[in-house]
Amino acid sequence: xxxxxxxxxGLAVGILLGSAVAGFAQSGTDIVxxxxxxxxxxxxxxxxxxxxxxxxxxxxxxxxxxPHLEYAISHIPGAVNVTAKPGVPxxxxxxxxxEVGRILGNKRDAAIVLYCAGPFCGKSKRLAExxxxxxxxxxxxxxxxxxxxxxxxxxTQIEPDGIRYVLERDQTAVFFDARSAEEFQAGTLEGARHLxxxxxxxxxxxxxxxxxxxxxxxxxxxxxxxQARALAExxxxxxxxxxxxxxxxxxxxxxxx
Length: 257
Description:
Blueprint: H1 10-16, H2 21-27, H3 48-57, E1 61-64, H4 68-73, E2 80-81, H5 97-104, E3 112-115, H6 123-133, E4 139-142, H7 145-151, E5 156-158, H8 160-169, E6 174-177, H9 181-186, E7 193-194, H10 200-203, E8 218-221, H11 225-236, E9 243-246
Parallel strand pairs: 1-2, 1-3, 3-4, 5-9, 6-7, 6-8, 8-9
């Protein structure tokens, strides 16, 4: 059952990612203000709206609590990854609190926001508990995580080792180069398609965009981070929800192939 408060049960989050987004709108719930609102948690949650504000004003450090490769493939822009705690099995993965201390200069009152792989992922919860036990006093979680971030139009960023992984493992991924036609012709990543931001509408009909599968992994490239991100955001506004941008070009890609 859809709710009118800014709280989502685990089931509601699943529905959110499917066909009931319109139902939330009709119910009067503002989805960007929603949280998972699980009981008996050690740390409070923030909404997508709050996460957007934090990223814009830099009022908290945002930590990605997932393993490095997951982070490298797709992370919220501005987030910092933390190495794994030694000796912990994969099933109980948690980031290293000692590494967090080094990043923060051991400031126990630093404002921290954690996120991981969504409502059913325990990585940010485990890290929050360990941080609180270590004396950190301002720890919050964006528990909706990467899946809802994307579902609500948020783009993600990919790193060079993430691109390498995608090129080796994901034959369905599509790369788009947002630069000018002249720059594209002068050289691009092998297999990339030319797609300036202003051509997205046309690309829906000329075969460049995967219109029959909006789940396709898409990676946007550009002459600089702003151009690549602008293309990624435009694609997100056109219902493609697995879109990342690469912040470097072209020197950073030379080591990828």
